[in-house]
Amino acid sequence: MADKHSIITSLHAALARHLDLLRTATPRGRLACAVLWLLTFALLLGQSVALDLNQQRQEHQQVQGLILSGLQTRLQESEMLQQSVVDIVGQENSQREQRIRLLVESLAREQPQLYFIGYQPLVSHAYRREFERMRSQLQGQPYRIRDYQHQQDNGWSQQQGWRLAPKRPRYLPLSMAEPGLASDDWREMGLDLLADSVLAPTAARAMGQGEAVSPVLRLNSGQQGLAFFSAIYNTEAPSPVPLVRSEQTAGMVLQVLALDKLVSLTPSMSLRYSVTLQRKDNAPSGYDRLIYRHPQQDQPGWLAQWLLPAMEIRKNLDSPYLPYELVVRRQLGFDRTAPLELLLSAVFSMLPAYLLLIILALLAQNRQVQEQAQERLHREREYAMVALSGISDAVISLDIDLSIRYLNPAAETLLGLKAGDAVQRKLHQVLRLNYEFARQVEEDPVHKAIQRRETVLLAQNCYLSRNDGAKLLIEGSVSPLPGRDGRLMGAVLTFRDTAPIRRRMLAALEASETRLRQHEMELARVARINTMGEMASGIAHEINQPLSAIMSYCQAGLSLLEDEDPDMAMLRRALDSSVTQASRAGQIIQRLREFVIKKTQQFTPINLNQVVGNALNLLEYELKTHDIHIEQNICHDLPLVYADNIQLEQVVLNLMRNALDAMETVAPWGRLSIATSLNGRWIRLSIGDNGAGIAPELLDRIFSPFFSTKASGMGLGLAICQTAIEAFGGKLNARNKPTGGAEFIIELPQLDAPPPTG
């Protein structure tokens, strides 16, 4: 609960600081932020409108493609149906009407544009009565060849417009309409197509050309439609002459299409798009200018119509007998510019304005901070002037050309000048430095400090010659004065009269000499005691190793004697090793005695591998007790080294014991690694462990005397080892292994190297 309260408090404090920062912005900065917000809002809104318009254009392309594809597909279906009926009629089968009816019934649902289709035979006047009788029996109601007198339009519902057809050489009566006209009394049946004022030109053109399309018809349902005529000839190869072809015509396949079904629009398309089928500019005469038009129902607002253009795409129909083009038009609008989008644009446009406000507030705050810093600098400068005026040391500030810019009252007093007399004058005009008992020409300290760009102390024998002839022995320094850009601006000379200081120093020196003599006597007494302690510690350290080995062998012998059947050979080997270590202790004492009396060491050629083997034999019992695994990598062709055998063996034994102590924390998985190798002219022995290693900050101190990482250590073992190895002309180093643990490396020169002097 306390943490939650502290977090809320921190948030409140941060919010308060942020509000304080925003308040520091100037009115001009706030106005700039408002302008930026307006520009960003306009940019985001324009981007949104651009994306909207681009999406509408893409949608327009897709819709136009869908409408055109659907229109062409229905035309192709109608053409295929027309050709299928022509094929059925061409077979001259008595069941052709039934076959046509079955075909149309199977395709009626798939072709909603089909108003009706059928074969209309060409009837001569001599065959007229027989034909009317046959059709009446077939249809079950009176059938007569008739004419229709069109008045204002080509509608079929005006009863007074029908009359019997007069005598003509040939008739083309409407006798088949599948799947049936949209009327109850079939009053269109019997219409002489060759005499109809609307369809006769198209029928005549089809007889002479083979196929033709009528102008726009007003169908019985009130819809608009087109009539397709395909001529059926009584010869397989009709004449290319139109008049002859007309005489060779046996009948017509007539198909009437409903235009509103031919151009199929979804509800969304009908709302957003205006669709028109109109004659192409290069179409032959005789075709209607406009055969279909569907206006856009959902018109955008006046603002969109005023600002945005209308898109229009024109595509020609791929039909040789339909010279029309499809025109899909749409008035662009602001479809996506909803209140939520306006709100989001307004919110997102606040981000750069808010960032600009923060930047301007930070700049204003920085200006305030700079003004405050300048004020503090002015105060500090005043404080510095007061401090310079109050100190007893002389201070002189110089330009790069050694003109005096400032000097404090202490400098005026020491130079014997009045206030303001030295400013803007050259330094050599008011200050003359000389040197007592100078054996050579002294370099001017001011020039020296400027050239070297470092502080230069005045010489100890430097004195100041005043205008009144007085000499003042002074001390001080000259420091270069750099500018903010790193360039040198001048220098600062500080000095003081040393006469009072020397008097105080003489008195203090006499008193300190007395104390120093007493302290030296005490230090000499303590040094003697420390020397005796170091010698005793060194002797104890050296003797402790063979004594420890003797104890280990004796304990092993006692353990063997306790067995019912003791191993006498192993017992003898333990006793022999004890005797050897006792003899070794005596040799160590002899070596220490020789070291004390400065006797020369006994250097002999030594095999380093033999020294390693002797040390491992001495540690055999301790290695088994601590369960230490030994990893040896011995080079058997090593040259000999020149050293004292006892001391070298003692160094190796001491390093191995240190490794055993370091691996107490990892028992029983301790690994003692021993490796010998030849590295140029150096014979190398490395002794490593897998213990905790040496702290990095202690690596440089482990060979220092009396420094130990063990709680009971004296800190002399590694120091003695390093001293002994260096006496043999070699080196002893230590490092931490990358895999963990420490490693000590002994490097000794080969035997052919000149032996070191003892």
TrEMBL record:
The record ties this protein, via Pfam families, to: CHASE, HATPase_c, HisKA, PAS_4
What does the UniProt entry say about where the protein is found?
Membrane
Enzyme Commission number, as recorded: 2.7.13.3
Q: Which GO terms describe its molecular function?
A: ATP binding
SMART domains named among the record's database cross-references:
CHASE, HATPase_c, HisKA, PAS
Which residue numbers delimit the PAS domain? 380-453
The coiled-coil segments of this chain are 502-529
The primary location reported for this protein is membrane
| Residue ranges occupied by any CHASE domain in the UniProt entry | 91-264
Histidine kinase domain location: 538-752
Q: Which residues cross the membrane?
A: 342-363
Q: Which Gene3D superfamilies match?
A: 1.10.287.130, CHASE domain (3.30.450.350), Histidine kinase-like ATPase, C-terminal domain (3.30.565.10), PAS domain (3.30.450.20)
Q: Does the keyword Coiled coil apply?
A: yes
Keywords annotated in UniProt = ATP-binding, Coiled coil, Kinase, Membrane, Nucleotide-binding, Phosphoprotein, Transferase, Transmembrane, Transmembrane helix, Two-component regulatory system
State the reactions this protein catalyses.
ATP + protein L-histidine = ADP + protein N-phospho-L-histidine
Write down the PANTHER family for this protein, in alphabetical order: PEROXIDE STRESS-ACTIVATED HISTIDINE KINASE MAK3, SENSOR HISTIDINE KINASE
This one is known as histidine kinase
Q: Which organism is it from?
A: Chromobacterium aquaticum
